[in-house]
Amino acid sequence: MTGRVFEAEGGRITVMEGWRPGPTADKGVRWSPRRRARRR
Fold it and tell me: Is the pLDDT of residue 40 over 60?
C-alpha cells in the first residue's frame, strides 16, 4: 500500500497530490472495469 489516492472519471485517471490533481492519463474514451483490471 502506498497511500496514494487516484481519481477515475470517464477515460481519465488522475493521481491526487493532496487536495489537488496531479499527473493525469486520458484515454479519450471510457475505461471498462474489465479492461482496467487487465492493465495492473
Answer: no
CA 1 vs. chain centroid, Å, equals 16
Nearest Cα neighbor of 10 from 39, 35, 30, 26 is 30
CA distance 15 to 7: 7
Helix H or strand E encompassing 23? strand 20-26
Name the one residue in this structure whose C-alpha cell is 489537488: 20
Query: How many Cα atoms occupy the beta-carbon half-sphere of 18 within 13 Å?
Result: 1
pTM of the model: 0.63
